[in-house]
Design brief:
single chain, about 475 residues, alpha+beta, 16-stranded antiparallel β-barrel
Length: about 475
């Protein structure tokens, strides 16, 4: 009995020792797994930090001018992965409203948007391109409530979406795109629907404009601005002088530039071709910014846009004609900014200008009064420009002046004869008060002389805006 008891006690001791050893081994394995997971997480964080450090080293130095600091930020506009952005996007809602009045029988805004330019026809396809948001009416208007969302998707992509909700409840998808984060050698790819980077003002949303309304050249040559679905490739080389090169390919769904005739019966009647497969619109741009020191910034830009299919229901000798071909637009822009040492923008100075030149090379596809003109070439040339400046007259107060003109060159030539048309112009003055970075109040007055038809008739009128803009929530920094 004693022997049996001793053996039992020894067996139980061995069993308990085995169980304890198994539990210890299990805890050891679990601990190893946790250590391995920590190692993987640490290596991932270290890799992210190295990539961010590499990007920061390639970006312009912080102590250079304002343009280079903005450009460095734009290479990673949407930020980095953090506890706040890893699963939830940044969100903001921007309210843009105004009080408007003109002495043109409530037709001033519409007249500005339909100023006569050579090559503007009717029957254009009503695509989503452009950013007109309708014309203001005498009285109170809510131009839009802009919902903005952005997030860093992962170490490889950023994404952004912007929706404009208009006063009547209509919702327009302004932008929805993704961008690569850390491609080698300064390359970057954007894909989706987005504002083209041609020119300077084109990529700005309405709440970013320095005046309530768009300049005449953009409004009438681009339908507000050029925005479409496509892909963009940019290259920011590691050069002493900031230099950005870019190309874009878009589907070509535009309301003005490269527009197509919408009605199928009209297309058949005028022997116009069906819509080509996309992409139908291509752009290229270069932006150069010499270093002028910490308080000064200068950017020069050159852009080109080409639509390989463009249609027009035009007129020859006041008779309807079908026209089809391609069109090209060239642009030059320059922006200078002075950052005063005074607080809240007092003494700051900004002057900017752009010039756009449009050339349409179209063939006559149908003209019943004189069929011999069919197949002949008809060219349309027109242009537009603006020059504007803002000065900080006091902390948070800015005074601005703008002159814009449409149709300095405004002519038609080729089959059917040649014609020259008058130009439209406008003077605008604005006073802006910014209580904080989240709100803005603006008083704007303008006088315009607008050509309304081929016969040279024009309409002169004055109008007034009182605008408010408020931002609810976090919003990404605006580019230079």
């Amino acid at each position: 009995m004693h022997t049996f008891t001793c053996r039992a006690i020894c067996g139980m001791a061995l069993m308990l020792s085995f169980v304890a050893h198994a539990e210890e081994a299990s805890q050891t394995d679990q601990l190893k797994q946790e250590i391995e997971q920590l190692r993987v997480d640490y290596e991932q964080r270290l890799q992210d930090l190295e990539q961010r450090l590499e990007a920061a080293e390639q970006a312009p130095v912080e102590s250079s001018n304002e343009l280079e600091r903005s450009a460095a930020a734009s290479r990673s506009t949407l930020g980095t992965v953090s506890s706040g952005s890893a699963f939830n996007p940044q969100m903001s809602l921007i309210l843009d409203g105004n009080y408007y009045h003109d002495n043109a029988e409530n037709n001033g805004a519409e007249t500005l948007a339909e100023a006569f330019v050579a090559g503007r026809g009717h029957g254009h396809d009503d695509h989503d391109g452009g950013h007109m948001h309708g014309g203001a009416e005498n009285g109170f208007n809510l131009r839009e409530a802009e919902l903005w969302l952005s997030a860093t998707v992962d170490p490889y992509f950023d994404a952004q979406a912007t929706l404009a909700i208009e006063e009547g409840g209509e919702v327009e998808l302004e932008e929805a795109f993704l961008e690569t984060r850390f491609l080698p050698a300064g390359f970057k790819i954007k894909a989706g629907k987005f504002f083209s980077d041609i020119g300077y003002v084109n990529r700005q949303h309405p709440h970013e404009w320095d005046f309530v309304d768009q300049n005449l050249a953009y409004q009438n040559l681009l339908g507000g601005n050029l925005t479409d679905t496509g892909i963009q490739l940019t290259w920011l080389p590691d050069w002493p002088v900031y230099s950005l090169f870019g190309i874009e390919a878009f589907q070509g769904d535009q309301a003005q530039f490269g527009a197509l005739v919408e009605d199928e019966e009209e297309r058949e009647e005028l022997s116009l071709a069906d819509e080509d497969d996309g992409p139908r619109l291509f752009t290229g741009f270069v932006k150069i910014a010499p270093d002028l020191g910490y308080s000064h910034a200068l950017q020069l830009g050159l852009s080109v846009a080409h639509a390989r299919q463009s249609q027009l229901i035009g007129e020859i000798d006041e008779e309807e004609a079908g026209l089809e071909g391609d069109e090209t637009l060239w642009g030059f822009d320059a922006v200078y900014k002075y950052d005063s040492p005074a607080s809240y923008g007092a003494g700051d100075f900004v002057v900017q200008g752009e010039y756009l030149f449009s050339h349409k090379d179209l063939d006559v596809t149908a003209f019943d009064p004189n069929p011999s003109l069919v197949g002949g070439q008809r060219e349309f040339e027109t242009d537009g420009a603006y020059l504007q400046g803002w000065y900080g007259i006091a902390p948070r107060w800015q005074l601005g002046l703008r002159y814009d003109v449409l149709g300095i060159t405004n002519e038609v030539s080729g089959a059917g004869g040649a014609e020259n048309f008058d130009s439209s112009d406008r003077w605008t003055v604005g006073l802006t008060y910014r209580p904080s970075e989240f709100s803005l109040l603006r008083l704007q007055a303008a006088t315009a002389d607008v050509v309304t038809g081929e016969d040279g008739d024009s309409e002169s009128f004055d109008y007034l805006y009182l605008q408010y803009i408020v931002s609810l929530g976090a919003h990404g920094a605006h580019k230079f």
